[in-house]
Amino acid sequence: MPAKTAKPSSPLTAQDIAELAEVSVMTVSRYFNAPEKLAATTRARIQRIVSETGYTINQAASSLRLNRSQLVAAIFPSLSSPIFNDTITALTATLNQQGFQLMIGQSGYDLRQEERLLGTILGRRPDGIILTGTEHSQATRNMLQNSDIPVVEIWDISSPPLDISVGFSHAEVGTAVAQHLHESARRRPATIGADDTRSLIRCRAFSSSIAAHQGQAAPIITVPAPATLASARAATRQLLAQHPDTDAIFCNSDLIAMGALIEAGAAGLDVPSRLAVIGFGDLTFLQGHEPAISSVRVDAAAIGEQAALRLMQRIRHGLVESPVTDLGFSIVRRATS
Length: 337
Description:
By secondary structure, the chain is of the alpha/beta class. Helices cover 45% and strands 16% of the residues. It is elongated and about 75 Å long. Residues 12-66 form the HTH lacI-type domain.
């Protein structure tokens, strides 16, 4: 017998939805709070009733009953940088599947701003917090330790996590790119990066690894974070003026790599025979770029998905299998190297 869909005139309750969908009230509760525990057909039936009736859960009452807000707060350095887009999309989708909503703040690569944002966020008592990177002010660390709220640090596993971390080693990225260029017989490599912590870790690891291979550290040129095409071009001009024999540039973002390629063309330097260029991020919107840009690929979507799943495990069960999830990276060699 098909489920009834008549909409009552009085405010709907979970009991009403349960009767219309021909399920128990507990099943309706699970639909909103732990949908992954329901069969797909049951979820679809309840979803249809919810859509047709316009029912919304009484979040305040639910939060009091479950001692949960169903909110997760995340702080990213930049919302305009495309490198975080896939992470945010996957994070949002995975949390939604688990019955949670994502609230996002932007720190502007400023630890003090992250600290101020966190103070505001904690007043709303989210069920979980996601931070970008492992570097934070001492005040931020103190607030998180006192809050007893699960925390996931993403895009970095350089330091022991506050609670959980999901990402990759930036130092290993720098070392791997240095090894790659050394094996490609590049003897005057350099690096350009933004002045944020994670970029600097990659730059310094690259430079010191080149020193280990070739006896001389690679030059490092930095630009203010977030890097722009204009700052990338200016940094490339500076590098080529100071080190005209540079034969390879490790650019710590694909945007910087684009700027380096523009300046190489302006200087009449053939890529890759005279100058190799490798970016970082392997952004999808550059896949049609000519020449095809060599880059370090990180699975930004997997970072978002795994961060959400680890956080859910921590919220619901109080522990995770491992506090650190290393998703690794790969060097994708294309026309520019």
